[in-house]
Amino acid sequence: MAGKSVGLEDLSVAFVMEPLAAADWLIPGPVVFCLLVGSVLLMLRKRTDLQPLIAIPALVVLCAMTLGLLAHVVVNGTVSMTMGRWLPPFGISFTVDAMGAFFAATSSLVALAAGIYGRGDVDHSGRRYGFYPFLLLIMAGVLGAFMTGDIFNLYVWFEVLLISSFGLLVLGNERAQLDGGVKYAFLNLIATTLFLIATGYLYGLFGTLNMADIAIKATELRGTAPLMTLVTLFLLAFAMKAAAFPVNFWLPASYHTPKLVVSALFAGLLTKVGIYALLRILGMLFPVEREELSFIIAIVAALTMVLGVMGALAQNDIRRAMGFLVISGIGVMMAGLALGSPAGLSGAIFYAAHSMVVMTALYFAIGIAAQLGGSFMLSSAGGLYARSAVLAFLTLMLFLSVSGLPPFSGFWPKVVLVKASLDVGAWWLAAAILVTGLLTTIAVGRIWALAYWRPANAGALEQHAAAQSLPAGAMAALAGLVVLSVGAGLWPEPVLVLAQDAALGLIDPSAYVLSVFPGEVPQ
Amino acid sequence: MRTVIFRAIAPYLTSLMVLFSIFVLLRGHNEPGGGFIGGLIAASALAIYGIACGVEPVRRAIYFHPMGISAFGLFVGTLAGVLSVFAGVPFMTGLWVYPTLFGVEIALSSVLVFDIGVYLVVVGAIGSIALALEERDRD
Amino acid sequence: MEPLFALLVGALFTVAIYLFMSKHIIRVLMGAAILSNGVNLLIFTAGRITREVPPIIGADSDVLQASAANPLPQALVLTAIVIAFSFFAFLLVLGYRAFQKLDTDNSDEMRVAEPVNESAPPLGY
């Protein structure tokens, strides 16, 4: 135990002395809140009736907090809090810029939808195994990753969300889940270990882990230190987390096996955390090295999007087709990273937020369809339009949104990205984005034609007669996400401006640096 | 492993180890020790008791489900950080109070609360994995 | 000392990657354990290796004396060990459960989630 008399006369050598504003608590607030509620729910895991009653209001509060944080950041610029009052870079900073706040707000809306949907989808034994606690804990990991300003802390949040995702993945303890879970767990473990290796090298080179500090020091070290090696390692590790070709095979092997709401949550959030890390580290900290690698990233992006959608075309299981569409979307985001221009990065950020909402909603839609008596298999599904025109209509809107047709949210980021690629003369990248859009339209159009428009065959009809009515909570969750997608499509101006702000914050990190080190002159 | 000697010694060994783990936990701030290592010692104490006397008695002895212990630890650890809201300093700042009890000054801090949380998380998590693995051996 | 440790880290990585090539889950698991140890050693080495110099800043200076090892990588290693340990425990349980349910630890035969002869999607109504 420490003695009472501490010999430091001047506390300002080690401590942050500025008083805290109340709004600063919004910075660690969402993560802390998720941890608190998640642990309470874990203690109450036998009270399966109480869990949704606690979790869903908590998720509403979480959305309010992250939206408040987004508003705070939009008004006041990047904000930062350093844990334990230590002066940065010695304490771990939480630094929230426009990109982090935007992703945090979007992901908590998605989590709220998943919480509402999970009420109907997860049975009592699934709740006892911890669907709601793990949902909150995975949100703590995701939000922590979006908000932290420290690379090793980013690694820790990756592990938090990974461990929670393991728990969610094997929720039903079925054979296919264990099979998929093993592949998911091992390949993700290798990816995070690669990330750790890169972090170790980074500390060896820089002597700091604080992102703002790295942004300052990178300019001095450039040319003398093997930064290219380091950045390539980061690229590999995060591309693996984001499921970019050729390190994407864990995703189609596992994403169709868990409970549907878990698939939806994973498809919406997990790969986007990888994209976020790529944007943050390659886009903000090492822009020069990213420029060097941009051709390779562009090739990876083009291959990911085209091969992803071709995988979707070849699937009979709709859930697996959706998994491939997730991969295809990752390719589009990586194209923005490869371009690196303000337009390219803002397109990638917009597309990532769009993909969070739309991919989750798509999984919800096919889950409701399967509950209505259809099946996940294209060869046997049918008659869903006759069963519920509303569901068919909502699904069609999502399908058009994921293929990037106007007036839905997928359209605008694709326009931005195509224009940005043509601006730098990368016509083949623009062509890849457009071809991917066409192939996606074919893939989802076929799903809609076969599963929704095609009349149900006679044998299936008898089963349908006994099928239950539309699940209200699930439909509400689906409709809410569709409204978000349509809203962003019809009125894209605020989102475009926000994405533009976020991209400019990545390209010129001086605001980010200043929020961590007030008074530091940015270079 | 269920020899008479081992079964006779195991309860004493377990209680000694749990006591030692608490000692390690409490001295941990400035000397070697702390929540994590203390938790590991306590979890291995549970594992030893489980090997000697079976998993059921261990589950009865700790009363709460290990996952519940772990969750409570997480809750306590997070709450220790939240305490700094009331002091108006950033999250996770160490706060110290020095009450005097029977003429002895005792240093209490939010750091210690956090360490207790870590201890419980480790006991719960490692304990539940160890007990699950031991249970399967009996199948 | 550091070059020797670098060689050792390389050797550990080699062993781990060799084990990753195996079809058997249990070997991949051992590979993951060895890889995480290799990484820990790597970070540890990155913070200088010295003997018997405590990382204590004297009263007359503001920075650590150059001969002392940097304590931060050791703290990072500690965190990484904890995480790697819990991962290893979890993967052990997961692999064991998969072995019980699927009756194999050969990843070539683990095709429940991705069936071998999956039918192609229908080409028309």
Automatic annotation (TrEMBL), chain A:
Keywords: Cell membrane, Membrane, Transmembrane, Transmembrane helix. It comes from the Bacteria. It is a multi-pass membrane protein. It is found in: Cell membrane; Membrane. Residues 150-440 form the NADH:quinone oxidoreductase/Mrp antiporter transmembrane domain. The chain crosses the membrane at residues 25-44, 53-74, 94-117, 129-148, 154-172, 184-206, 226-251, 260-281, 293-314, 321-343, 349-372, 384-405, 425-449, 470-491. It holds the Pfam family Proton_antipo_M. Belongs to the CPA3 antiporters (TC 2.A.63) subunit D family. PANTHER family: NA(+)_H(+) ANTIPORTER SUBUNIT D1, NADH DEHYDROGENASE. NCBIfam families: PRK12663.1. This is Na+/H+ antiporter subunit D. It comes from Hoeflea alexandrii.
TrEMBL record, chain B:
This is Na(+)/H(+) antiporter subunit B. Residues 5-126 form the Na+/H+ antiporter MnhB subunit-related protein domain. PANTHER family: NA(+)/H(+) ANTIPORTER SUBUNIT B, NA(+)_H(+) ANTIPORTER SUBUNIT B. The chain crosses the membrane at residues 12-29, 35-55, 67-91, 111-133. It is a multi-pass membrane protein. Belongs to the CPA3 antiporters (TC 2.A.63) subunit B family. The keyword Lipid metabolism does not apply.
From TrEMBL, chain C:
Gene3D superfamilies: 1.10.287.3510. Its main location: membrane. It is found in: Cell membrane. The keyword ATP-binding does not apply. The chain crosses the membrane at residues 6-21, 28-46, 75-96. Keywords: Cell membrane, Membrane, Transmembrane, Transmembrane helix. It is a multi-pass membrane protein. It comes from the Bacteria. Belongs to the CPA3 antiporters (TC 2.A.63) subunit C family. This is Na+/H+ antiporter subunit C. The lineage of its organism: Bacteria, Pseudomonadati, Pseudomonadota, Alphaproteobacteria, Hyphomicrobiales.
